[in-house]
Amino acid sequence: MGVSPPWVTAAQFHASTASRSNTAGSLGTRLASPTARSLAWWVRLRAKWAALPVWAKWVLALYMIGFADGTADHVRWMTHGGIHAYASCYPQIPIQVFFVILVVADPLIVVLLGLVQREGIWLACTVTDAPAARTCPGSRRHE
User: Fold this and answer.
1) Which of 30, 74, 94, 139 is deepest in the core (most CB within 10 A)?
2) Residues 68 and 92 placed together within one structural domain of the fold
3) 112, 123 in Cβ contact below 8 A?
């Protein structure tokens, strides 16, 4: 909607916004029936899951379980040691930052995968491929 210029009167502003209302009804009508909106959202989500092949449903479910477990593990580490919980295992700061970021990234992945969003799959692939990049350089001993 944006901010109206100062030379537009309130009556002109309200008239212009009323003419832009969509076919779903006025804002009051749309806000008065949140259950219909949430039901429609739920129906669309179920349709997305129903359109998936069985193997894809299993893959998404397993990934969601794995990332939920990862979330719990990272939260456990953080409650015991704070933001420096990984310092004893990984002295490199970028690796510690990555693990702390996973406290937010893992539940985000679970939500995106549950909503059958393509971004969730890309983020899951990025997070699962990152261990090779983050731990291999950190685990080598340079003598």
Assistant:
1) 74
2) yes
3) yes
